[in-house]
């Protein structure tokens, strides 16, 4: 069953879900970030049906998240490599993993990320890009951006 499309919604989250919101897609990107590039390796690691994997990879290529690079001519076979656009999903996946570590699993985290420079386990922390201060949702104000229109999502009025 095909889900509803968000293509007409003027919302960055909705438009992102148009590209990576299908089941399996972020797991494919996760494995690509782990260094997987070959169709058969994605299929084996994920246990995903080949037709579904083909569809998800085609979508990622179509949207510039991954690029196909031939590695064999007869028959033609491809590596699937993340583009800069795809590599930028790293912070999204890191945040999802951290949320899952806290709220979705009943044991210790199955993986951790270690900062090579200092050797410590690192986490993604929201900070202000201007001053470097750590921020929470209550520290932020949501305002219309330069691309806003009458259909853009707006925050509910916030009490003082």
Automatic annotation (TrEMBL):
Domain HTH hxlR-type: start-end pairs: 11-108
Alphabetical keyword list: DNA-binding, Transcription, Transcription regulation
Any Pfam family hit: HxlR
GO MF: DNA binding
Protein name from the UniProt record: Helix-turn-helix domain-containing protein
